[in-house]
Specification:
By secondary structure, the chain is α+β, with helices and mostly antiparallel strands. The chain contains one helix and three strands; from the N terminus they run H-E-E-E. The protein has a three-stranded antiparallel β-sheet with strand order 1-2-3, with helices on one face.
């Protein structure tokens, strides 16, 4: 599993939009259409769609 990075302010806003706690998630990949995040403790991966 790739190592993630701490989310930026805008990424934290997107995480809160999906009802996720930004303190528990790390950003693995960030594109224009989606953001891939991994949980700090369980290593579960989620793909969040970015709305326009």
């Amino acid at each position: 599993m790739k190592h993630g990075k701490k989310p930026t302010r805008q990424q934290k806003i997107l995480l809160r939009y999906y009802h996720l706690n930004p303190d528990n998630w790390l950003v693995v990949k960030n594109t224009d259409e989606e953001m891939h995040v991994v949980h700090r403790h369980t290593d579960s991966l989620r793909i969040l769609k970015k709305e326009g």
